[in-house]
Specification:
The chain is mainly alpha-helical and 254 residues long. A two-stranded antiparallel sheet has the order 1-2. A two-stranded antiparallel ribbon has the order 3-4. Helix 1 runs antiparallel to helix 2. The protein is globular and about 60 Å long.
């Protein structure tokens, strides 16, 4: 039974690997707009499945810690294994999602499919920043009820929402935004910075059972639910921004 939490963690890793398979399964797709006759370059069709697998990895990531505490089977090995799985599921896979979006953005340009790989490499700052953040977390004994910097699962879920937003949106300005390379460079910079920073961030843990300790999480849950009803997948980045703002306003101690 002591190995059960580690088995959960390995499922996290498996889902991360499946996400990577979906991201890399096919190249960019060229289609013809029936109304304008314009040639369009779109992201691989199955990339949205990667988002689902990353979401599954996040659910597993939450429950492996819960199971470990329930069975009193927490261990240093489990902590390290969890970090290794998180780097793949919430670092490498999201980094590859942005890599594909950058390819798509450049593909809109003349000869864009032949873009120099140097322009795409910034996408890998995401897994690098995530790995750095996890390494710092593993040697920091102070991060119990709060985090220093945005946790990598939150950053990974944010990026994982982008294919779903792009795939299902009917809003032209969102489509145009997602084929703008400068938007993706901004995402890379902001998300990477938030992970490696020491800004105080909320953790989904409670210091006590008082109503005051629940208020931030209630607010965040309400924002997520209301945004999901009205904005569908756009609720994820909106909730992410709300999470960061709430954390900074509360300045919760670690």
């Amino acid at each position: 039974m002591k190995q059960l939490p580690n088995i959960f963690t390995l499922f996290n890793l498996v889902f991360g690997c499946l996400a990577i398979v979906c991201i890399l399964q096919s190249g960019l797709i060229s289609t013809m707009d029936e109304n304008t006759g314009q040639n369009l370059i779109v992201i691989p069709e199955k990339i949205y499945l990667a988002s689902i697998f990353i979401g599954c990895a996040a659910v597993i990531d939450f429950f492996d810690g819960f199971v470990a505490r329930l069975l009193k089977a927490s261990s240093d090995m489990g902590k390290q294994l969890d970090s290794l799985a998180d780097v793949v599921s919430f670092g490498v896979a999201p980094g590859l999602i942005i890599y594909q979006f950058l390819r798509m953005s450049y593909a809109q340009q003349v000869d864009g499919l032949d873009v120099n790989i140097l322009w795409l490499l910034p996408a890998f700052l995401i897994p690098c920043a995530g790995a750095y953040r996890l390494a710092r977390f593993n040697i920091d004994t102070e991060q119990t009820y709060g985090f220093k910097g945005v946790p990598i699962p939150a950053a990974g879920l944010l990026v994982a929402s982008f294919p779903l937003i792009y795939w299902y949106t009917n809003l032209n300005f969102i489509i145009q935004l997602f084929i703008n390379k400068w938007f993706w460079y901004a995402v890379i910079f902001v998300v990477s910075y938030l992970m490696v920073s020491t800004l105080p961030m909320m953790a989904l843990k409670f210091k006590n059972a008082s109503l005051k300790s629940f208020v931030p999480f209630i607010i965040l849950a309400l924002i997520a639910i209301i945004c999901a009803i009205f904005f569908q997948w756009l609720a994820v980045p909106i909730t992410f921004v709300a999470y960061v703002i709430l954390s900074l306003l509360l300045k919760q101690k670690n």
